[in-house]
């Protein structure tokens, strides 16, 4: 059987195709080459395939809304080449202390009133200290009490810290692999790919759902994009939530002048994530502000079923909520959790 045939049968059932070398005792894994073969399909065939997978697992007219809040901005010790919050680059983002609990609760209440179902709090830390965990745990408890799902992204996490967050009511931990192992060293040198995998494993061990994705448009090749998707799809189990970010080029970061990715290549990445991780929530994440309505509609058609909702991401802007509400009306989309 050739690779394409393996993909078509397995992916239509929403399963991973078996690697050539897999046996009954080994889990089936996605090979990067099989994912490259998906990328290489004619655009219409790829989108059709993604729609079939999407429709067999989700209501395609429903989109989940997560609102982001930066609870500790800037001054980060890491040197992720895309990030405006790294202390290594001069981007004009001022470092702030951890936000007081009352302000977080106020923002969460506003997000709920606007229709978000999940509140995601981000801190620009390499890794949190134990006293930070206590303060974030208090935030999680309060946000949960409002009736929102909770998500935090705090950098590298030890297993005991993950358990403390779980105990406070944390639903999701966001920690991205960002790019393929091969491209990674060109993007960040202050922590390793393995560090990221270790944090993901600690989060899993504590029983927290994993939100893990990456960024495209970092100057990576298609094969490296396929390599990122292979890493995500081969996590066992694969993440419950997969944010696909398009690089927001920020002046002062090393990647500020990177050539933008072809928009259809971005849509292909969404489709390939949907096919390889059939039951995950694929989030159309950073970079949406620069996408027109037609491109966003293609992303939903390709299987994206979640967005960041609210005028701001962490430090950069996101579409105004009125613009998103109008887009949903025009496309007949419903926000998850709303009648
Ligand atoms: N410090 C934590 C960490 O790195 O895990 C959490 C915050 S960090 C800003 C979360 C994610 O945002 C990054 O992993 C990256 O995927 C995404 N991100 C950051 N800057 C971005 C940019 N300029 N464009 C697109 N995505 C970006
Ligand atoms: C994710 O994958 N994207 C979000 C969230 N997880 C934390 C962050 C996007 C940040 C974009 C740049 C900024 O606003 O600073
Ligand atoms: Fe720090 Fe996260 Fe930005 Fe990297 S992506 S510099 S870890 S805030």
Could you describe the 3D structure shown?
By secondary structure, this protein is α/β, with parallel strands linked by helices. Helices cover 40% and strands 14% of the residues. The chain is built from 12 helices and 10 strands. It has helices at residues 3-12, 32-39, 43-57, 101-114, 130-146, 159-168, 181-184, 193-205, 222-233, 263-276, 293-301, 321-331; strands at residues 62-72, 118-123, 149-153, 172-174, 209-211, 214-216, 241-246, 281-284, 306-308, 334-335. Strands 1, 2, 3, 4, 5, 6, 7, 8, 9 and 10 form a 10-stranded parallel beta sheet that branches. Helix 4 (101-114) links the parallel strand 1 (62-72) and strand 2 (118-123). It is globular, with a radius of gyration of 19 Å. The structure holds S-adenosylmethionine (SAM), 6-(5-methyl-2-OXO-imidazolidin-4-yl)-hexanoic acid (DTB) and iron/sulfur cluster.
What's the short story on this structure?
The protein is α/β, with parallel strands linked by helices. Helix content is 40%, strand content 14%.
Q: What ranges have pLDDT less than 50 throughout 5 or more consecutive residues?
A: 1-15, 17-26
Question: What are the secondary-structure elements, in order, as H or E?
Answer: HHHEHEHEHEHHEEHEHEHEHE
Helix content: 40-55%
Q: Outline the biggest β-sheet.
A: 10 strands, parallel
Strand content: 5-15%
Tertiary shape: globular
- Which class best fits the helix and strand makeup? alpha/beta
Bound molecules: S-adenosylmethionine, 6-(5-methyl-2-OXO-imidazolidin-4-yl)-hexanoic acid, iron/sulfur cluster
Q: Averaging pLDDT over every residue, what do you get? A: 93
Q: Number of helix segments?
A: 12
Question: Taking Cα atoms only, what radius of gyration do you get, to the nearest Å?
Answer: 19 Å
For the record, give the distance between the C-alpha atoms at the N and C termini, rounded to a whole number. Answer: 46 Å
Report the strand count: 10
